Amino acid sequence: MLGLYIHIPFCKSKCSYCDFVSYAGCGELADDYLKALQKEASFYKKIPFPQTVYIGGGTPSFLSCTQIKQLLDFVNRTYGGNFKEFTFECNPESITGEKLKILKSGGVKRISIGLQSFKDEELKLIGRVHNAEQFLKAYIAARKYFDNINIDLIAALPQQTKDSFLESLNKVITLKPEHISVYGLQVEENTPLYKSGYAYDDGFYVDLLEIAYQTLTAAGFKQYEISNYALAGFESLHNINYWQSGQYIGLGAAAGGFVNGERYGNLNGIKEYISAVRQGRRPLEFKETLTGKAKTGEEIMLAFRYLKGFKPTAEMLKFFENDFDELLKKELIEKDGNILKLSAKGKYFANEVFCKFVEPFK
Q1: pTM, whole model, 2 decimals?
Q2: Which CATH number fits domain 2-241: 3.20.20.70, 3.30.300.30, 3.40.640.10, 3.30.70.670?
Q3: Neighbouring C-alpha atoms within 13 Å toward the C-beta of 293
Q4: Residue 87 bridge partners (DSSP)
């Protein structure tokens, strides 16, 4: 399966924890950016049409109604429309009824809304510009148009407690979304949150993720990936393609892709990206073709994210059998017949697993 990812790097403001490539106060560049996206797409004319589309950011819903329509028209015109899955990310403060109507008529099938917490004080501490009431209004409006909605939550926020996290979870469950993503907060260097000195105890972090697992599975959601829960039939096809080492085109500043064995990442800066495309060249920060141990290691890392697990190939055993044995002894992974997968413990310390297969080969 081939996917298409389009990165929209514009935001109303930058959250204190955010390490993604996104920019506040650059909205005047949006029109030129959308034109550059269309030109970049022409560099991949010989690639088959994608079956899934994911427009993420940043905040794609930051775009105006006219700009969103232009973006969707371009996607459908260039790639044939009629996708198996078409996801568009939104933030509550920038969702409107008119934008939702445009998204629906433009072929979008799935909406992902960044809530992060139902507690206004927690939202304020991380620099979110919406509150719980705005989220509820946005969700109710989205429900009029979409029957496949994801809601994002974050665990281990500043001043968050087990009770406040559980309260957010339960309120989300009562809304009956089809998909819920629960991300453990990563305090990344060079973010305001990191510079503030904020840190959390690993035990607290694990406790919150375990609360999420117990609460969501009891409510009928299945955890199919480390951070993702879905009702039956509503798993994200686009993301599953990533975890199964499928191919995908990435368009836009900082977007990454994997096509015909080549992995690439685009320039981060909006102006630099636009300038490169205008000059008729791929706006690359890097490109590489993984082979041998590096390629196999990345395939393993991605496969472990998908909780169904995988049957190790001869190539995987050739390079990493000793690493598998070590992780089995540490009870970070487990065997289910001839299938390897993360253990219950391993889900909460997945980076310790992943670094066995990726970090040495960067």
Answers
A1: 0.95
A2: 3.20.20.70
A3: 12
A4: 54, 110
